[in-house]
Write a structure and sequence with these properties.
By secondary structure, this protein is an alpha+beta fold. It has one domain (about 5-125). It has helices spanning about 25-30, 40-55, 60, 80-85, 85-95, and strands spanning about 5-10, 70-75, 100-105, 110-115, 120. Strand 4 and strand 5 (about 120) form a beta hairpin. It is globular and about 40 Å long. The chain starts with 5 loop residues before the first strand and ends in a 5-residue tail after the last strand.
Length: about 130
């Protein structure tokens, strides 16, 4: 059985621009709007800080990514330490009845940023 190279955890439904918000974006929206419990918000802040210190921020490395509103971040399935914390984010989404889905692909679209752990790709340019 083939395992796809990339995985993304995202909203099940597109937003008004047609973008599917990723798991971190979904959690951060809940946090910014004061909708998380104190424990969930502590987890969000501490885990986000861990990710920020452990992995490159594609948007800091390439500011033009912000000009691509449909650009989406994908984890490499080989990035196990990066993926290990995702289930706790997903549990928070479940607790707040936020619909999410796991999507896998080998072709995320036009790759705009790439490192050993992740890619940011524009799905509109998918081959």
């Amino acid at each position: 059985m083939h395992q796809a190279e990339f995985v993304r955890f995202r909203s099940r439904f597109a937003d008004s621009r047609g973008a599917f918000v990723g798991v971190f974006g979904l959690i951060n929206v809940l946090g910014r709007h004061g909708m998380l419990t104190p424990e969930e918000d502590r987890f969000r802040r501490e885990s986000n800080a861990w990710y920020d210190s452990a992995y490159p921020d594609p948007y800091a490395a390439n500011s033009s990514l912000s000009d691509r509103p449909l650009a989406a971040s994908w984890f490499r399935v080989s990035a196990i330490p990066l993926l290990d914390r995702v289930p706790d984010y997903l549990a928070i989404l479940d607790a707040h009845s936020i619909a999410w889905e796991r999507v896998e692909t080998d072709e995320p679209g036009e790759v705009l940023y790439e490192d050993e752990h992740q890619v940011v790709a524009d799905p509109a340019a998918r081959a």
